[in-house]
Specification:
By secondary structure, this protein is mostly helical. The chain has one domain. 69% of the residues lie in helices and 3% in strands. A two-stranded antiparallel sheet has the order 1-2. GO terms for molecular function: proton-transporting ATP synthase activity, rotational mechanism.
C-alpha cells in the first residue's frame, strides 16, 4: 500500500501548487522530487522501526518492541471500534498504514529541519504539506471503500448507484469520491497552515514564542492523523454494513 501511495503522490495528481518545486522527468512521467524524498524518508523510518521491533521479539516487550506493540494495539482498537468485531481484522493493515504514515509525515514537518537541506529548486517539507500526497491518500481510501462493498456483494454492490433512478448515477459516484477528498483538503490545509504559522513566528520572534505553537502543532498533527484514519475506517464500514444488511434482507 505504501508503494502505491508513493507513486500516486509523486506524480503531481493535483495542479494546485504554491511556489517552486523540484521535479524529475523520467520518460513521460513527471515526478514530484520533494514529495518523493520526504515520503521515502517517512517510509524508511517505518521500515526501520518495524525491523527493529521484530528482530528479537521478547515475551515481555521493551523499548522499540513495546512502542510498536502499543501502536498496533491502538490501531486494532481504532479499526475494531469502526468496523466491528467480525469485519475489522482484514482492514487493520490498511488503516494502520494510513494512520502511521500520516502521523509520521505530519510530525516530520515539525521535528525535522527540512529547511536546512537546500535543493536546486524548491524546498523540502512534510509529505502531507503537498496536496498531491493528501489526494493520493483520498484516492486510496476511495478504492478501499469500493473494494469493501464489491467484496461483500460482488457486482450487486453497484446497484446502489442506479437506485432509485439511474439519473442519480453521477451524483452517487461523486458523493463517494468527495467524502475522502474533503478529508484530503482538510489535512493539507491544516498541515500547510501550521508550518506557515511556525515559519512566520520564527522570523518575527525567533526564541521562545514559536515553542508553544510547535507543541500545539504536534498535537493537532496527531489529531489530524487520527481523524483521517478513523473516518476512512468509517467509510469502509459504511460500504460493508449497508450492503451486508441488504444481502441479509434478500435471503
Amino acid at each position: 500500500m505504501i508503494g502505491f501511495l508513493d507513486v500516486f503522490s509523486s506524480l503531481s495528481l493535483a495542479k494546485l501548487e504554491v511556489g517552486h518545486h523540484l521535479y524529475w522527468q523520467i520518460g513521460n512521467l513527471k515526478i514530484h522530487g520533494q514529495v518523493f524524498l520526504t515520503s521515502w524518508f517517512v517510509i524508511g523510518l517505518l521500515l526501520v522501526a518495524s525491523l527493529a521491533a521484530t528482530r528479537n521479539i521478547q515475551r515481555i516487550p521493551q523499548g522499540i518492541q513495546n512502542l510498536m506493540e502499543y501502536a498496533l494495539e491502538f490501531i486494532r482498537d481504532l479499526t475494531r471500534n469502526q468496523l466491528g468485531e467480525k469485519e475489522y481484522r482484514p482492514w487493520v493493515p490498511f488503516i494502520g498504514t494510513l494512520f502511521l504514515f500520516i502521523f509520521l509525515s505530519n510530525w516530520s514537518g515539525a521535528l525535522v529541519p527540512w529547511k536546512l537541506i537546500h535543493l536546486p529548486e524548491g524546498e523540502l517539507a512534510a509529505p502531507t504539506n503537498d496536496i498531491n500526497t493528501t489526494v493520493a491518500l483520498a484516492l486510496l481510501t476511495s478504492l478501499a471503500y469500493f473494494y469493501a462493498g464489491f467484496s461483500k456483494r460482488g457486482l450487486g454492490y453497484f446497484k446502489k448507484y442506479i437506485e432509485p433512478t439511474p439519473i442519480l448515477l453521477p451524483i452517487a459516484i461523486l458523493e463517494d469520491f468527495t467524502k475522502p477528498l474533503s478529508l484530503s483538503f482538510r489535512l493539507f490545509g491544516n498541515i500547510l497552515a501550521d508550518e506557515l504559522v511556525v515559519a512566520v513566528l520564527v522570523l518575527l520572534v525567533p526564541l521562545f514564542v514559536p515553542l508553544p505553537v510547535m507543541a500545539l502543532g504536534l498535537f493537532t498533527s496527531a489529531i489530524q492523523a487520527l481523524v483521517f484514519a478513523t473516518l476512512a475506517a468509517a467509510y469502509i464500514h459504511e460500504a460493508i454494513e449497508g450492503h451486508g444488511d441488504e444481502g441479509h434482507e434478500e435471503h
